[in-house]
Amino acid sequence: MLQNVIGENSGKVWRLLNEKGELTFNQIKKDLKLKNEEIYLALGWLFREDVIYSSEKDETLYFGCR
Fold first, then answer.
1. Which residues contact 57 (CB under 8 A, 6 or more apart)?
2. Could you tell me the pLDDT band of residue 3, with boundaries at 50, 70 and 90?
3. Over the stretch 18-39, which tens digit does the pLDDT of each residue have?
4. What is the DSSP letter of 1?
5. Which residues, at least 6 apart from 41, have a Cβ–Cβ distance to it below 8 Å?
6. Burial tier of 32 (Cβ tally within 10 Å: 0-12, 13-18, 19+)
7. What CATH number has the domain spanning 2-54?
8. Full strand arrangement of the beta sheet holding 60-65
9. Rg of the chain's alpha carbons, rounded to an integer?
10. Read out DSSP for 9-66?
């Protein structure tokens, strides 16, 4: 069951990044209204699938779609 929820949240995060481009963790949280843990799990899933990347600008971490 938890795996299904993580997969659904991963899809939400991926669609958001695909639509809006690079976003910070806080921007993702604000747009999707998910808990921190839900976002961390979704990002981990997407990194494992190698469909997102991260970059740092001015000491801020951004996430984007490959």
1. none
2. confident
3. 999 999 999 999 999 999 999 9
4. -
5. 6, 9, 10
6. middle
7. 1.10.10
8. 23-24, 60-65, 52-57
9. 11
10. HHHHHHHHHHHH-SEEHHHHHHHH---HHHHHHHHHHHHHTT-EEEEEETTEEEEEE-
